[in-house]
Write a structure and sequence with these properties.
By secondary structure, the chain is an alpha/beta fold. It contains nine helices and 13 strands. The longest helix is centred in the C-terminal third of the chain and has 15 residues. The structure holds zinc ion (ZN).
């Protein structure tokens, strides 16, 4: 959730109840809903929120989104009602076919809402897309400035770290990150947001070009892999059964 003064915007409200409780507790009024993709755990709260706050709903043009008023695709830019933040839209298919991301490029507080495409130290499952599509989408996100804060759809960081360390056991930055994120969870804090810079250094799904990641993928596959797409596809399949 983003807010300015008493105006608030929520991203991917899968469930309305905790959003309403938070808005009421903080004395905030909802001004808009932003949606990254059509899965119910990202849109399930739209209708109940709209019943109380009939606000604009932004969402991907190529998916069916409850209550959507503004259909978006790459190249679009919006100024979020109520809070004035400017966001640009990227198409990032792979997890779903029409998945989009919202990017704030202002230098003092760059951020991205990337739904279930890029996770902290991981990436989403390929429900509606192919490995080349997903890798291209992850490369777009990886190309954002390093300080860009990554707001993803789920807190999967510790489980993702266990897998990442199986892929890259010699990555010292990964070892340090695991200690840092574990401490946050021990204090019952979220690990999120991360940053694009951290993800480039530790997320195996952004590191298919790294020799160590390729070697681990080839060892898991039991054969040589032809290119970075094959490396990415192998570690994604490996993670599915990890
Ligand atoms: Zn999803």
């Amino acid at each position: 959730m983003l807010h300015r003064g008493t105006n608030a915007v929520v991203v991917d409200p899968g469930d309305a109840a905790p959003v309403i409780a938070h808005l009421d507790r903080e004395g905030l009024e909802l001004c808009a809903i932003l949606t990254t993709h059509h899965h119910n755990d990202h849109v399930g709260g739209n209708r109940a929120l709209l019943a109380r706050w009939p606000v604009p709903v932004y969402g991907p043009a190529r998916e069916t989104i409850p209550g959507r008023t503004h259909a978006l695709a790459e190249g679009d830019a919006i100024t979020v009602p109520g809070i004035g933040v400017e966001l640009s839209v990227l198409d990032i298919p792979g997890h779903t076919a029409g998945h989009i991301a919202y990017v704030a490029r202002n230098a003092d507080a760059p951020l991205v809402f990337c739904g279930d495409t890029l996770f902290a130290v991981g990436c989403g499952r390929l429900f509606e897309g192919t490995p080349p599509q997903m890798l291209a989408s992850l490369c777009k996100l990886s190309a954002l400035p390093g300080p860009t804060r990554v707001y993803c759809g789920h807190e999967y960081t510790l489980a993702n770290l266990r897998f990442a360390r199986a892929v890259e056991p010699a990555n010292v930055l990964l070892e340090k990150r695991q200690a840092r994120e574990q401490e946050k969870r021990n204090r019952a804090e979220p690990t999120l947001p991360s940053t694009i810079g951290e993800e480039r250094a530790t997320n195996p799904f952004l590191r298919a070009d790294e020799p160590a990641v390729r070697a681990a993928a080839e060892q898991h596959a039991g054969r040589a892999l032809s290119d970075r797409v094959a490396v990415f596809a192998e570690i994604r399949a490996w993670k599915n059964s990890f």
